[in-house]
Amino acid sequence: QLQLVESGGGPVQPGGSLRLSCAASRFTFNSNWMNWVRQAPGKGREWVSRISGLGGTKYADAVKGRYTIYRDNANYTVYLHMNSLKPEDTTVHYCPTLGSSVGVECDYWGQGTEVTVSS
Description:
- By secondary structure, the chain is mainly beta.
- About 0% of the residues lie in helices and about 45% in strands.
- It has no helices and ten strands.
- The protein has a six-stranded mixed β-sheet with strand order 2-10-9-4-5-6, with no helix packed on it.
- The termini are far apart.
């Protein structure tokens, strides 16, 4: 059974940075896209970014230029480095994978890690 564990969230001031991690149990990690999806309180899930097994990346317009996704295939981990954080980035972040090319429709999700941007 695939397991995903997100970590690295926490409180941060506007303009600050955080790095999120997503550790995956051993599956065909190297050949699969990994996504980051976020959900603000009371709102739906929003796709943020994804990375292919070979390192190709895509970003939502809302985070382009501020977020960087990368992966360590040897350690089954994907990261999301977030800079210039804004209050509207206050969300729970997930790293779903498998089952769909659309991040918010993937089959496997972790428990999420919460990011709170506030002064």
